[in-house]
Design goal:
- This protein has about 425 residues and is of the alpha+beta class.
- It has 18 helices and 7 strands.
- It folds into 3 domains: about 50 residues, Rubrerythrin, domain 2; about 210 residues, Citrate Synthase, domain 1; about 110 residues, Cytochrome P450-Terp, domain 2 (Cytochrome p450-Terp, domain 2).
- α7 packs parallel to α8, α10 crosses α18 and α12 packs across α17.
- The protein binds s-citryldethia Coenzyme A (SDX).
Length: about 425
């Protein structure tokens, strides 16, 4: 590493085939790893970088979320996740992610009112649900219905208009609970519940999910607080797979509703947001504490593709700070519901204890992640496992749309178009069918 005259640090690569050297600047962030600016690498060397899975690649500059994987730190606009989970509310965290600062009292009141006023969906949208089978996975419904929003809100799809960008963001954050609750209601054959403007964001979601037109439904304030906290814990997480999907889709100029639908599709995978559903299935499959050793053995067996769902993370090589808050919330919710002996929680805690003392997990730095405990809480609250990733998508929408907005407003933004290392056939002549033997 050397320094240029103006004090910029640089790194120089030498191609041993030609002796040619290329020097590239090192850019420093406010905190965290610096980056090597390789934008001129191909022009000067004729080589691409190669980084499948982007384990060493910074795709953008961002000011929204910072993660220190070694220390288990997660900051949203500089505020730590444990402070936000303990002292803030999800609508306030939404304002913070979108605008870069915590709202004043007046801003908070206005933003809360905007979300309440945008919570209804176009009445025609309810017709979409009847096209699905009742047993359709709710994530399939979310992909379809959210993508269809662009067919209803033409007045907020001009990505170059900051006013339209803002309205689209508000509409998406406000309508996701309604769309998600409708997906649940459709799966259980109950009528859709309209949102109520006298309820908070989390209260409204629980009311639309578990209330019915037949009788008044009183939302349990402890469950509403837990729901709000779970939403905060899932709000944003730097350049994860689904956020990168939203950014890449948005880089082509696609409308925000289509980009969020792409993010939902990416989140669905069991290696990502689908892990919360997979964790519960895994715990139910384990069935009892005495079957844990076998499960841990299988997770370590290279010939067995079984993995401990809810463990491990691309960035966290320490305990996921969200998992710690989630575990505490788990005890609070089970306590509030009077659930004394939840076998799945016993299995989860014993599995965590064993894994954290096992050489394999220690050496590979595999710790529980955000998905490990969330499913137990959500099950206790009455959600079916098929709804777990829907709740993740509901909460992550603010992160996706904040990152999308930051990308659109980034002056260096251009369409994302990675290259490749090609190892296929070189040019060959077409052979007509009659001559192929
Ligand atoms: C989320 O990126 C984000 O920020 C995501 C997220 C967010 O908020 O957006 O945090 C949300 O997606 C959390 C992760 C949820 N997924 C799971 O819980 C699924 C189980 N976990 C794994 O599939 C895995 O840990 C990943 C996908 C999360 C991370 O995989 P990496 O970083 O690509 O690491 P890897 O698969 O290369 O694993 C490294 C080693 C491997 O062994 P070796 O090949 O080096 O010998 O660790 C092993 C893996 O076999 N390993 C596991 C394991 N996870 C990794 N072994 C057993 N059980 C596991 N869970």
């Amino acid at each position: 590493m050397t320094q240029t005259k103006d004090g910029t640090n640089t790194v120089t690569l030498t191609d041993n085939r030609t002796g040619k050297q290329v020097t590239m600047p090192i850019l420093d962030g406010k905190v965290g790893p610096s980056v090597i600016d390789i934008r001129k690498l191909y022009a000067e060397t004729g080589c691409f970088t190669y980084d499948p899975g982007f384990t060493s690649t910074g795709s953008c500059e961002s000011q929204i979320t910072y993660i220190d994987g070694d220390e288990g730190v997660l900051l949203h606009r500089g505020y730590s996740i444990d402070e936000l989970a303990a002292q803030s509310t999800f609508p306030e965290v939404c304002f913070l992610l979108l605008n870069g600062h915590l709202p004043t009292a007046a801003e908070s009141t206005e933003f809360d009112s905007i979300l309440r006023r945008h919570s209804m969906v176009h009445e025609q949208l309810t017709k979409f649900y009847t096209g699905f089978r009742r047993d359709a996975h709710p994530m399939a419904i979310m992909c379809g219905v959210v993508g269809a929003l662009s067919a209803f809100y033409h007045d907020s799809t001009d990505i170059n208009d900051p006013v339209e960008r803002k309205i689209a963001a508000h509409r998406l954050i406000a309508k996701m609970p309604t769309i998600a609750a409708m997906a649940y209601k459709y799966s259980v054959g109950q009528p859709f519940m309209y949102p109520r403007n006298d309820l908070s964001y989390a209260e409204n979601f629980l009311y639309m999910t578990f209330g019915t037109p037949c009788e008044p439904y009183k939302v349990n304030p402890v469950l509403a607080k837990a729901m709000d906290k779970i939403f905060i814990l899932h709000a944003d997480h730097e350049q994860n797979a689904s956020t990168s999907t939203v950014r890449l889709a948005g880089s082509s100029g696609a409308n925000p509703f289509a980009c969020i639908a792409a993010g939902i599709a990416s989140l669905w995978g069991p290696a990502h947001g689908g892990a919360n559903e997979a964790v519960l299935k895994m715990l139910e499959e384990i069935g009892s504490v005495d079957r844990i050793p076998e499960c841990v053995r299988r997770a370590k067996d290279k010939n067995d593709n079984f993995r401990l769902m809810g463990f491990g993370h691309r960035v966290y090589k320490n305990y996921d700070p969200r998992a710690q808050v989630m575990r505490q919330a788990c005890h609070e919710v089970l306590g509030e519901l009077g659930i004394k002996d939840e076998p799945l929680l016993d299995i989860a805690m014993e599995l965590e204890r064993i894994a954290l003392t096992d050489e394999y997990f220690i050496e590979k730095k595999l710790y529980p992640n955000v998905d490990f405990y969330s499913g137990i809480i959500l099950k206790a609250m009455g959600f079916p496992t098929s709804m777990f990733t829907v709740l993740f998508a509901l909460a992550r929408t603010v992160g996706w749309i904040s990152q999308w907005k930051e990308m659109i407003e980034d002056p260096v933004q251009k369409i994302g178009r990675p290259r490749q290392l090609y190892t296929g056939e070189t040019k060959r002549t077409f052979v007509p069918l009659a001559e192929r033997g």
